[in-house]
Amino acid sequence: MSVLLAGCTSTPLPPDMGCGVPGGLCAPAAPSASPPPAEPGYTPPAPVERAVTNPIDLPPPLDGSARAAPGGNGTRIALLLPLESGALAQPAEAVRAGFLAGHERERSGVTVNVIPTGDSAQATLDAYARAAESNDIVVGPLARPAVAALASSGAVSKPTIALNHPQTNGPLPRQMLVVGLALEDEARQAADWAAAEQPGGRALVLTGSAAWQQRLTGAFTARWSQLGLSSYVVELPSSDGYIDGNALAGLRARLQQDPPQLVFAALDAVGLRQVRSAIGTSLPTYGTASVNPGRDPAMASPELSGVRILDLPWTVQPEHPLVASYPRWDAGTGGFDMQRLYALGIDAYRIARELALRPGSRFEIDGVTGRLSVDMGSGSPAFRRVETGTVYRDGGVFESVAFEK
Predict the structure, then answer these.
(1) For residue 139, which of 87, 161, 297, 400 is within the disulfide window of CB 3.0 to 4.6 Å?
(2) 169 CB contacts (<8 Å, ≥6 apart)?
(3) How many CA atoms lie within 13 A of 314 on its CB side?
(4) What is the DSSP string of 308-325?
(5) Rounded to two decimals, what is the model's pTM?
(6) Between 269-279 and 245-257, two packed helices, what is the crossing angle to 10 degrees?
(7) Three-class DSSP category at 75
(8) What structural domains does the chain harbor?
(9) CB under 8 Å to 139, separation ≥6 — which residues?
(10) Which residues are CB-neighbours of 374 under 8 A, at least 6 positions away?
(11) DSSP one-letter code for 44
(12) DSSP-assigned letters across all residues of 164-216
């Protein structure tokens, strides 16, 4: 996520990983084993050697290539991930671990073939072609350029669940469903939530100069305008994680002269804490996963108490029966980004399994990344994720809030 979430040392995710995780900073994932070869007939590039670990207690792949279900062949699902990429191996390993956790819980009738790729889009396209020949459903790619390359290649021949957003203006292939985590979706849902609770309110949008902050700001203000509401944006300069004191003083003076009805914070938890220390905590404040300080009492912040946070059930509702039914993943020092990608892997498996059971249909899933709606029956596959609204309380407690749009 942003900076020092959950009190852990963070490292940036590569630019190719949109992941829906503002800031793209996360703790290192556990080193992954060199990925196994795929099914017979596919020869992957030489693997990059890595230390062998097993992030969760899962059986190893059968015959070094697949994790099969008992009782016959059933549905074959290929999981296409950049496990051989130096830049993307950690996020790929997080998704792989989550996907296999999902398979371990619901294995009947499904065989999973993990197919490793490298960085290049062409290598991904070649691997996809081979995967589609010998599998019924393909899950992946993960990197945004690879998804874009596949979407425009004309090669999508099987139901395909892309794990990132291609950021293309053209229509997606008829059999491609995009289920990646998108920070713009979070910002738009936060706008709907704020509008429902503060009807007619004028919003102050606090942001910074980072690309992820500008993306959040643009998505929120666009949706706010669509709702017929007004807002104004204040960009707060910062250096080394600290917001400029003069900027905070200027903001405080402006709010005394012209107070808004609510605040949307396109900031991280550290920045929002500084802002609320300077301007007080009385204004209703909304944010996405970027402002989530975590549940660790050591990170408790009275300045953030009462902030409304939109995030994944996996992150803010670990006690939820569905969330608790899956093993937690040890992602090294426990970075939020890797946990969210692990959760994405779980839900990607559940969607793939449902597609196998009900091809070409419409269905909903109560997932660990939110309430998921899938429609494969229309001309263009449609997907929607509604995340969980919570209110943060000092001490690391999250209170769920019901809201609909």
Answers:
(1) 161
(2) none
(3) 24
(4) EEEE-HHHH-TTSHHHHT
(5) 0.83
(6) 50
(7) strand
(8) 5-181+330-338 (3.40.50), 183-311 (3.40.50.2300)
(9) 77, 78, 79, 80, 99, 160, 161, 163, 348, 349, 352
(10) 177, 351, 354, 355, 362, 363, 364, 365, 381, 382, 383
(11) P
(12) S----SSPPPTTEEE----HHHHHHHHHHHHHHHSTTPPEEEEE-SSHHHHHH
Work out the number of other CB atoms within 10 angstroms of the CB of residue 297: 10
62 C-beta neighbours (distance < 10 Å), count: 12
Give CA–CA dist 86/363, Å, rounded: 37
Dump pLDDT digits (tens) for 71-98: 446 899 999 999 999 999 999 999 999 9
- How many C-beta atoms surround the C-beta of residue 51 within 10 A? 9
| Helix%, strand%, coil% for the chain, nearest 5 | 35, 20, 45
Rounded to 5 degrees, φ, ψ at 264 are -110, 125
Look up residue 143 and give its amino acid: A
Nearest to 356 by CA among 173, 163, 137: 137
Question: Six-digit token pair at 337?
Answer: 């980004």
Contact 78, 103 (CB under 8 A): no
Per-residue b or e along 15-33, where b marks 16 or more CB atoms closer than 10 Å to that residue's CB: ebbbbbbbbbbbbebbebb
C-beta of residue 6 within 8 angstroms of C-beta of residue 296: yes
Q: Please list the residues that pair with 391 across neighbouring strands.
A: 308, 399
Each residue of 17-67: pLDDT tens digit?
A: 654 443 333 322 332 333 333 333 333 333 332 322 233 333 333 333 455
d(CA 102, CA 117): 21
Tokens 């400029």 locate to 244
